[in-house]
Design a protein that fits this description.
The structure is a homodimer. The first copy, chain A, is of the alpha/beta class. Chain A has 2 domains: about 5-50 and about 150-315, Rossmann fold (3-Layer(aba) Sandwich); about 50-145, 3-Layer(aba) Sandwich (Rossmann fold), CATH 3.40.50.1100. Chain A has 15 helices and 10 strands. The first copy, chain A, has helices at about 5-15, 25-35, 50-60, 65-70, 80-90, 105-110, 125-140, 150-155, 155-165, 180-190, 210-215, 240-245, 255-270, 280-285, 310-315, and strands spanning about 25, 35-40, 70-75, 95-100, 115-120, 140, 170-175, 195-205, 250-255, 295-300. In chain A, the strands form 2 sheets. In chain A, strands 1-2-10-7-8-9 form a 6-stranded mixed sheet, sandwiched between helices. In chain A, α1 packs across α3, α1 (about 5-15) crosses α8 (about 150-155) and α3 (about 50-60) packs across α5. Chain A is globular, with a radius of gyration of 18 Å. The N and C termini of chain A lie far apart (about 45 Å). The mean pLDDT of chain A is about 95. Chains A and B meet through α13 and α15 of A and α13 and α15 of B.
C-alpha cells in the first residue's frame, strides 16, 4: 500500500508538466448546499482530465530499457489521452487499444499526441485480450488505468494542490470508477487535512464500490447503464480496495438526474463545462446527500471531456 | 476625460467585492493563433460579467443623500444585474427598467438581488422614456450603462488585475458595445503596459465604433442584427469617444460565425461557457485578424450569461 511519501515523490515528478488547476467557488452553491464549497477543477487539466497525473508518474518511473520498448494501454477515453500525452512528453512510443465505438474526438485527441491507435471490439474482454497480445508480441510495458501504485500516487497529487490553496477541510468528495483517484487522494488528504472525512461517490446504477465498502470485499457488477461513463468499471482494483478499507470514510451514490442537474448548474451559473463523471462528486455536495451544514467541503471535478451532442441533449 | 488615477481609485473601491478573475491559457489556442494568448475570464465575475465593476464604483460614489433616494437603470441584461447587486451590497434601493422581452433568467437574476423591476416596451426609446420618468417622479439617481466617468473607471479595473498576473503585453483586445469597457481599459493598459496596442473588437453588423474610429466622429447605426447582444448599442458615448480617439490603436470586426466558432472552441477545448459578446475579442485573436505572430496578447471575455437555448442551438 502506498504512503504519503509516494505521493510527495509523485508530485515532484508531475509538477513541471501538469496544470495547477483552480478551486472554483460560488455563493449560490454555498447557499444551496448549506456549506462552504470548493470544486477542484480537473476539467481544466491538460487532456481535460486528471488522468495525465498518474500516466505521467507511471511512464516517468520506467527504466530506460522499458521506455525504449514503449507502452501499451487500453481505454475508450481519458486514460488513453493521458497515456498518449505523457508518453509523447517523455519520448516513449505509446500503443493505445480503443474500442471501435470510442468517440471520434477522443480517438483524434489520442492520435494528436502521436500515439498509435489499434481498434478492438467493444467488450472490455476483447480490449484486454488485444492489449495483452500486443504486450507479449511487441514486448510493450502496460500502463494500467488504476490498479497500480505509481498511477495511484500520481492521481493523489490533486489533494496536494488543494492543500496549497486551503488550510482546513472537513470533507473531501471524490468520484469512484476503478478507484485510482479516490485511493491516491484518500491517502494524501488524511495526511494533509487532519480529521478530514473522505467520501467516495458513484452513480446509483454503478454502485460496485458502494457495495464493496459495505461487504468489505471486492464486489463486481454487470456493466452498469449510467450517463457517467467513467463509472462503467465493473469493480475497483485490489490496491484500490486496500486503501478504500483503510482510508475512506464512506461511499455514497447520486442519481443520473442529480448529475445532469449539477452539469446544468455548472454551465448556467458557474460557466464551466464538465463531463458527467466530473459532475458526480459535486452533485453529492450540491444535493447535500450527507445533510451537512456549515462545513468546509471540497469535491473533485474529474474531467470535462463531454461529447457536444450529449451537452446539447441535456440543455 | 478620466486618468489612470481614477482607475486606481476605482480599484480600491471594487477590490473587496469583485472576484479577481483568472487569465485562461491553452496550448492549442497559442498554436492556432501563432501568439501567446491570455483570456481574462470575466464570465467568472460576480453576476457573470464585468458590469458589476462600474456599477459598484458608481453607486459607491453617491452621496448619502443620493443613496437614500435610490438608483434607476435601464437594461435588458448584464448592466441590470450589475446595478441590482451593487445597490444591494451598498444598501441602496434599485429600480430597473427592463423590456418585456428580456430573458426570464436575467429578470429573475435582477429580482433575486432585491431590485424592483419595471417592464417597458422593447424599443430603446421607450426604455429611456420610462427610466427618465421614474428618475423625475421618484427623484432617483440614474446609473448610466457606459457614458459616465465612474462607470468607465470601474470597468478599467479589469486591466489592473491583468497587470497583477503578467508583466508584459503587446496587444489588448476588448469588445465594444457602448464603449465602457474599452475606454476604462485603454486608459489603464496604456499606463500599465508601456507600448501596448489596444484594439477594439465588434461584430461586422454592429460596426458603429469601427466607423466612428475611422470618421473621427460618433457614428450611429440602425439597431444591428448580431448574435452578440452586448453589441446592439447603436453608438458609443461621448466620454467613450474621447478616450477612443486618444488611447485606442484600432477597431476591427469579426463575423457572427467566427464568434460561434470561438464559443465552441471555448466549450469543447477550454471547458468554459461564454456569452456571444464574451467571445468577440477572443475570436479576433483565435482567427488572428491582425496577422500577428510571436506576440503576447490578451483578450477580455466580457461575460458568460448565455441563454441555454442558444447554447443548445450552436452545439
Amino acid at each position: 500500500m502506498i504512503t504519503y511519501a509516494d505521493i510527495e515523490a509523485a508530485y515532484r515528478v508531475v509538477k513541471p508538466v501538469v496544470h495547477k488547476t483552480p478551486l472554483l467557488t460560488s455563493r449560490t452553491l454555498d447557499t444551496h448546499s448549506l456549506n462552504r464549497v470548493f470544486l477542484k477543477a480537473e476539467n481544466f487539466q491538460r487532456i481535460g482530465a486528471f488522468k495525465i497525473r498518474g500516466a505521467y508518474n507511471k511512464i516517468h518511473s520506467l527504466t530506460l530499457e522499458e521506455r525504449k520498448r514503449g507502452v501499451v494501454a487500453h481505454s475508450s477515453g481519458n486514460h488513453a489521452q493521458g497515456v498518449a500525452l505523457a508518453a509523447s512528453m517523455l519520448g516513449v512510443h505509446a500503443t493505445i487499444v480503443m474500442p471501435k465505438s470510442a468517440p471520434p474526438n477522443k480517438v483524434a485527441g489520442t492520435k494528436s499526441y502521436g500515439a498509435e491507435v489499434i481498434f478492438c471490439e467493444d467488450s472490455s474482454d476483447d480490449r484486454e485480450r488485444v492489449a495483452k497480445n500486443l504486450e507479449e508480441e511487441r514486448k510493450l510495458v502496460p500502463v494500467p488505468p488504476y490498479d497500480d501504485d505509481k498511477i495511484i500516487a500520481g492521481q493523489g497529487t490533486v489533494a496536494v494542490e488543494i492543500a496549497q490553496d486551503i488550510d482546513k477541510l472537513d470533507y473531501l468528495f471524490v468520484p469512484v470508477g476503478g478507484g485510482g483517484i479516490i485511493a491516491g487522494n484518500a491517502v494524501a488528504a488524511k495526511k494533509l487535512f487532519p480529521g478530514v472525512k473522505v467520501i467516495g461517490v458513484e452513480t446509483e446504477t454503478a454502485n460496485d464500490c458502494y457495495q464493496t465498502f459495505r461487504k468489505k470485499e471486492i464486489v463486481s457488477i454487470q456493466p452498469p447503464n449510467t450517463i457517467a461513463d467513467g463509472m462503467r468499471t465493473q469493480s475497483i482494483g485490489k490496491r484500490n480496495f486496500e486503501i478504500l478499507m483503510n482510508y475512506v470514510d464512506d461511499v455514497i451514490t447520486v442519481s443520473d438526474q442529480q448529475v445532469i442537474d449539477m452539469m446544468k448548474f455548472l454551465i448556467e451559473r458557474m460557466k464551466v463545462v464538465v463531463e458527467p463523471t466530473g459532475a458526480v462528486a459535486p452533485a453529492a455536495v450540491y444535493h447535500n446527500v450527507l445533510n451537512l451544514s456549515g462545513k468546509t467541503v471540497c469535491a473533485i471535478i474529474s474531467g470535462g471531456n463531454v461529447d457536444p451532442a450529449f451537452l446539447k441533449k441535456i440543455l
